Amino acid sequence: MARPPREIMECRDYMLPPEFPVMVLTGEEWRISDQRSPVLHFHNHMEIGICHSDRGVMGFREGDRPFKAGDVTLIAAGTPHTTCSAPGTASKWSYIMFDPIQLIDPATSSVELPVVELYTKVLYNFRAIVSRDQDPLLGMLADEAVREMVEKRPNYRRCVRSLLDIILNKLSRRAEDRLPEKSEKPFHISPALRYVYQHYMEDLRMDDLAAACKMSTSYFRRVFTETMGLGPLEYLNRTRITRACTLLQMTDSSVLEICEAVGFRSLSSFNRQFSAIMGQPPTAWRSKIHADMPVMLRRYTGWVTPPK
Q1: How confident is the model at residue 104 (pLDDT cuts 50, 70, 90)?
Q2: Distance (Å, rounded) from C-alpha 8 to C-alpha 34?
Q3: What's domain 9-181's architecture?
Q4: Given pLDDT bands bounded at 50, 70 and 90, which one contains residue 198?
């Protein structure tokens, strides 16, 4: 029996400045056609959309969801979708593309650990379409973030960070019926989490992480384990394996190339850690993912103009 044709999907990458990883796409040219794209696309960063006019549907793998003027949408990075206006219309939009971890960077603040856990509810495989009737404040926050980015008044970056922080918190509450219980401890290990996020692909040492927190290695290991519920090395390996899963699913790179890209220095160690965390070797995991969700990717750099 012939294999069914592979689904085609587009990857739209936006290269955001590392010092302030946010971009706004707005203006009269950002109108969405009523001609539906034959393929879904996803972005390498989170997308917040504001629908200014008309109505239509957003298409996801599981089906369509309607939108109308005034709605605010949030699409996590890597979430396939497409937007199509109602027949005879061309809905007008503004979009905010941003890297929430780098932009908000909760690991650098003095907040408690559950805030980081809370963000994870909307960082992966999350999508929401929220009407102004449901949450008028969310719409006002999104509007203000776009306005700050366009006008660039004094301290606009600080304002945008704060506005997007509030938006993420509000949407995270929608993703979880109950907020995590707050920790009574200050978030002493936050510099180590940030260091892992930025340098997981490098040859990290426990001493480096401890030094980032200004702790001795033995004390850091104990505090980290008490706070996170797992040791620093296990946390590092889980971060690397999570990134490896994305590369296995979204690229054609070899297992060896991915192993090296995420920081493992030996293929055997990568295979062992991947199997321990994911339940099967990387090659078998990739085969199953591709069999369940056969996709052919087309990779582009952002949208120059909206798709026609």
Answers
A1: low
A2: 21
A3: Sandwich (2.60)
A4: confident
Q: Could you tell me the pTM of the whole model?
A: 0.66
110-116 LR contacts (CB < 8 Å, sep 24+): 110/186, 110/187, 110/190, 111/187, 112/182, 112/183, 112/184, 112/185, 112/186, 112/187, 113/183, 113/185, 113/187, 113/227, 113/228, 114/179, 114/180, 114/181, 114/182, 114/183, 116/193
- Name 22's bridge partners: 98
Q: 190-292: which CATH number, 1.10.10.60, 3.40.50.720, 3.20.20.140, 1.25.40.20? A: 1.10.10.60
Q: Which has the closest alpha carbon to 83: 94, 131, 175?
A: 94
Q: Check if 9-181 and 190-292 are the same fold.
A: no
Q: Distance between CA atoms of 272 and 276, rounded to whole angstroms? A: 6
Q: Among residues 294, 108, 133, 77, which one has the least CA distance to residue 189?
A: 108
Q: Determine the average pLDDT of the residues in 10-34.
A: 87
Domain boundaries defined on the chain: 9-181, 190-292
